[in-house]
Structure to design on (520 residues):
């Protein structure tokens, strides 16, 4: 995203300075990525504590994602205006302050507001951590530097659900935000101590304020429409229709403005390149499906399968184990193998994982639910690096920051949209399945009568017995709805394979460190 300082002007770091610099930058990245996954298993607890439904609780995740996506394209301009080191350090400190405010939030509205602020200030952290890390290492060790950096972004999604679940069950949910405070301050202090004399050149550039305003308007309206739609019965609501119109008009105005602006906030001309638009589309749709299902699974487990937040975290955590082992192998071989094969393999494995999940039933034990998560680690390893390599292949070096920023923006927005769409479809399908199953619960049904007699024998009144049966119907309906979402997601992953083969095989050198850098 950010243009690196002139490499000739900066000698690589050495000895303990390089070790501490790498640790500080990695810790900041870890904290940032952790915050995208740590709240997933805590949603039911946060929603319950703040008096909203768990589906409304998904705002905690989507608000951060959308704000983060909007801030990412601004990194290049901000770093040239204030300097990479100053911007990165300020970003980390502001992230710590907004994390603290998230923990203190007394209600859901305040929490969402602080999560938006947290997402906005987090935008520059990941791209700048890459730029500063690459300037710390000699050219020949750039791949090693990015491999170390990528490890932290893979470990964080493993630790997030485990930490989030344990903290929620044993302390309280605000501590999922408070743990950022010591890590963030330490990372900011060490980074400033080591890198402040390596500040990049500062120059004043015009900012595309109209383009930025239009970007906020159309992305924000679309996200609010997706979140509000499920509460307000979609297009039967004037508010949802108004949001839809604002989103469409805002998008059209944004595209026209950006194509005619001299210094656009987003360089849309990149979409003229087949590899870029097909690669970015495949990665965004794939990431949206992946992230939507990653949020849906712990919600289902905790609300309808009786799992604690810790147990749900343990089911989610192993996704990073095989990814951690296989990612370095993918990185080493990306120059030798057609990246389209790797990406197609990732989509096949994702489809297999989601098909396995679509066969779950309410009797599924911990091991059965865990197996697809472990296998999913294979898909994750083969997903990011090949698709970034395809997306950035053949793009001129001076355009790489803009291309990486735009593809990251589209991917992060897709993740937030995926969350909203997955939970909305889950709710709608559950209502449909509940209505269908309820038709069989009547006085003439042998199964219903024997269940009522059995429950009466256990000392329940007729009303209590009906309530118990309704809970069982609910459990079945939400399980069948989750299966529908998993199955549909599996089919879409298979449909993405031809899209990958629309791209041309890239030149291997186009991936390199940029591929690793853009992976998250």
């Amino acid at each position: 995203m950010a243009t690196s300082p002139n490499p000739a002007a900066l000698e690589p770091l050495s000895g303990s300075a390089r070790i501490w610099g790498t640790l500080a930058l990695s810790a900041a990245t870890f904290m940032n990525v952790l915050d995208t996954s740590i709240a997933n298993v805590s949603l039911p607890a946060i929603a319950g504590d703040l008096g909203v439904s768990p589906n409304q609780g998904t705002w905690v995740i989507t608000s951060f994602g959308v704000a983060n996506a909007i801030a990412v394209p601004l990194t290049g301009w901000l770093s040239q205006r204030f300097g990479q080191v100053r911007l990165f350090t300020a970003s980390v400190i502001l992230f710590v302050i907004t994390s603290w405010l998230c923990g203190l939030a007394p209600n859901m509205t305040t929490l969402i507001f602080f999560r938006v602020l947290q997402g906005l200030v987090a935008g520059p952290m990941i791209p700048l951590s890459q730029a500063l890390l690459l300037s710390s290492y000699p050219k020949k060790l750039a791949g090693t530097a990015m491999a170390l950096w990528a490890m932290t972004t893979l470990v964080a999604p493993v630790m997030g659900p485990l930490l989030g679940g344990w903290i929620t069950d044993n302390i309280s949910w605000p501590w999922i935000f408070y743990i950022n405070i010591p890590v963030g301050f330490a990372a900011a202090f060490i980074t400033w101590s080591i890198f402040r004399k390596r500040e990049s050149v500062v120059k004043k550039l015009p900012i595309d304020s109209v383009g930025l305003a239009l970007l906020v308007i159309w992305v924000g309206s679309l996200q609010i429409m997706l979140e509000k739609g499920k509460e307000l019965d979609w297009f039967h609501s004037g508010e949802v229709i108004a949001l839809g119109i604002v989103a469409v008009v805002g998008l059209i105005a944004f595209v026209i403005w950006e194509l005619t602006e001299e210094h656009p906030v987003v360089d849309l001309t990149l979409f003229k390149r087949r590899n870029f638009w097909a690669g970015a589309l495949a990665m965004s749709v794939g990431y949206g499906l992946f992230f939507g299902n990653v949020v849906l699974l712990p919600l289902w487990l905790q609300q309808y399968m009786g799992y604690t937040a810790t147990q749900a975290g343990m089911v989610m955590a192993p996704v990073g184990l095989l990814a951690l082992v296989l990612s370095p192998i993918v990185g080493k071989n990306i120059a030798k193998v057609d990246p389209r094969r790797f990406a197609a393999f990732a989509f096949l494995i994702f489809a297999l994982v989601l098909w396995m999940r679509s066969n779950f039933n309410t009797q599924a034990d911990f091991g059965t639910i865990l197996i697809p998560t472990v296998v999913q680690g294979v898909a994750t390893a083969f997903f990011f690096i090949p698709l970034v390599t395809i997306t950035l292949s053949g793009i001129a070096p001076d355009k790489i920051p803009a291309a990486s920023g735009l593809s990251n923006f589209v991917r992060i927005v897709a993740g937030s949209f995926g969350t909203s769409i997955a939970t909305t479809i889950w709710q709608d399908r559950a209502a449909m399945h509940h209505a269908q199953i309820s038709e069989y619960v009547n006085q003439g049904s042998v199964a219903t009568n024997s269940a009522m007699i059995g429950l009466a024998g256990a000392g329940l009144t007729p009303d209590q017995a009906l309530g118990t049966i309704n809970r069982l119907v609910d459990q079945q309906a939400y399980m069948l709805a989750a299966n529908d979402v998993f199955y549909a997601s599996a089919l879409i992953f298979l449909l993405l394979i031809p899209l990958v083969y629309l791209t041309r095989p890239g030149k291997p050198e186009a991936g390199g460190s940029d591929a690793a850098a853009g992976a998250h």
